[in-house]
Each structure stands twice: as structure tokens, then as C-alpha cells.
Design a protein that fits this description.
single chain; alpha/beta; 2-enoyl-CoA Hydratase, Chain A, domain 1; six-stranded mixed sheet; 46% helix; 17% strand; globular
């Protein structure tokens, strides 16, 4: 069987590959778990100086979570919270990685895929990339833990636009919104990411780790209350979520009722 998440090594540079190209690298529950574990292992490896995250193939970084398994793993708020905590812990693993991280984005980067990219220190994409978080069509929210990453990168005004419209937009707009640091041609993407990684590797590794730690400390948010955490998963008990999920799986337009 193919690994859901593959790790490649080239000297001090490690590349983590989301490895489901036939599903546009959509992340299943097992993929989220494996991704977090791989990144934690690399974070503990002193020989690593830079980690690149990418999707397998040339069509997608990641097309979000694997919605086909939601009826089994996100059927209600209890399951939603368990799943959401897994996603949040994976985001924390990427964000807390002691080594600098770069998201190499080619093609589709939406929903949970964009969350993975946002957790990285640098985001470099190709001109053909597409971005967005269209979960309003599922009757689904980003939990507090997931939303923090989006807010840290783009701020509340742009976060509201992305989540309220649920629109998918191009690479230039992603650059304008601050979602990515650089946009390059499709042909130049790998070279640009490798050049960026080489610059990082050429620097003092302890300094890179300290700078990451200092920035996290200065950007710290107050801890969430238990009630706030629970509210982040209340959507899974609504009729609108069940309607949105059914509509997605049946490839029809949802009919939301606000219940």
C-alpha cells in the first residue's frame, strides 16, 4: 500500500509529501494522524534544517479533508470535536516544528489543505494554484483551534471574506491577501522552493529555531475556554450540516434552513 504521507530526505532538507494524488491529496482522518506524526519525528531530528510540505502529483497541494468519510467520522458534535482535535494537533505539530517549514503549493489548496499550508512558515505557490475555504456550502465551521492559524496570517477582515463568501480564488489574489509569500511560474516552482530552502539551510540552525520560538511567544493567544471549544463543533448537530453533507455527496445544491 502507498503511504498516506511520504517523507523524502536530501541532506538536511526533508520533504513531506501528501500522497493521495488520485484524490487530489484529500486528507482522511488517518492522513491527518500520519502527517502530524511525521512532522513530530522530523522536529525531533537534529540533522534536519528545513522541512518542505507538498502534495503528490501536479494537480493539488491538498483538496481539503476527505468528505466522503464524514458520515462515519464527523456525524455529530462529539465526533466532530474528536476529529477537530486531531486536525488541531496536526496543525500544532507543523506550527511548533523547530525547523523552518515551507509549503510548496501547486494546484488546488483549499479547506484543510489551506490550513496545512497556513501552518507553515513560508508559502510559495505556482501561478495555477487555487485557494479558498468553501465550507459554508457544507454547513460546517472552522473550529477555534483551526481558525487561529487563518487569523494569524490574514487578520479578521480577510478571514471574514474568505469564510463568509466561501469563494475559490487564484494565486495572485492569494498573494494580495497575504496567504502566500511568493507566486512563480509552474515551471519555476520547485527551483524557487529549493532555493529558499538552501538559504535557510545556509543560516545558523539554532538562530532559526530561536527566531521561530520568539515570534510564537510574541504572537501568543489566550487559552480557549471549554465552552468555546465545544461551540466550535456545535455545527455537527445542525440540520444544515446534515443537508450540506448530503448535498455534497449527491452532487446537488444544498437547501439550508438555518436549523
Amino acid at each position: 500500500m502507498n503511504q498516506l504521507v511520504r517523507v523524502e530526505r536530501e541532506g538536511p532538507i526533508a520533504t513531506v509529501v501528501l500522497n493521495q494524488p488520485t484524490k487530489l491529496n484529500a486528507l482522511s482522518r488517518d492522513s491527518w494522524s500520519e502527517l502530524g506524526q511525521r512532522v513530530r519525528e522530523l522536529s525531533a531530528d537534529g540533522a534536519v534544517r528545513c522541512v518542505i510540505l507538498r502534495g503528490a502529483g501536479d494537480k493539488a497541494f491538498a483538496a481539503g479533508a476527505d468528505i466522503s468519510e464524514f458520515p462515519d467520522v464527523r456525524a455529530d458534535s462529539a465526533q466532530g470535536r474528536a476529529y477537530g482535535e486531531l486536525v488541531y494537533h496536526t496543525m500544532q505539530a507543523i506550527g511548533d516544528c523547530v525547523h523552518p517549514t515551507i509549503a510548496m503549493i501547486r494546484g488546488v489548496c483549499v479547506g484543510g489543505g489551506l490550513e496545512v499550508a497556513i501552518a507553515c512558515d513560508l508559502r510559495i505557490c505556482s501561478e495555477a494554484s487555487r485557494f479558498g475555504i468553501p465550507i459554508n456550502r457544507l454547513g460546517l465551521t472552522m473550529g477555534y483551534g483551526e481558525l487561529m492559524g487563518l487569523l494569524d496570517v490574514v487578520g479578521p477582515a480577510v478571514a471574514r471574506e474568505i469564510l463568509l463568501e466561501g469563494r475559490v480564488f487564484d494565486a495572485r489574489e492569494a498573494l494580495d491577501k497575504g496567504l502566500v509569500h511568493r507566486v512563480v511560474s509552474d515551471a519555476a516552482l520547485e527551483d524557487e522552493v529549493r532555493t529558499s530552502a538552501a538559504r535557510i539551510v545556509a543560516g545558523a540552525p539554532l538562530v532559526a529555531r530561536w527566531h521561530k520560538r520568539f515570534i510564537r511567544r510574541l504572537s501568543g493567544q489566550p487559552p480557549l475556554t471549554e465552552a468555546e471549544l465545544n461551540e466550535g463543533y456545535a455545527c455537527f448537530d445542525t440540520e444544515d450540516y446534515r443537508e450540506g453533507l448530503a448535498a455534497f455527496l449527491k452532487k446537488r445544491e444544498p437547501r439550508f434552513r438555518g436549523k
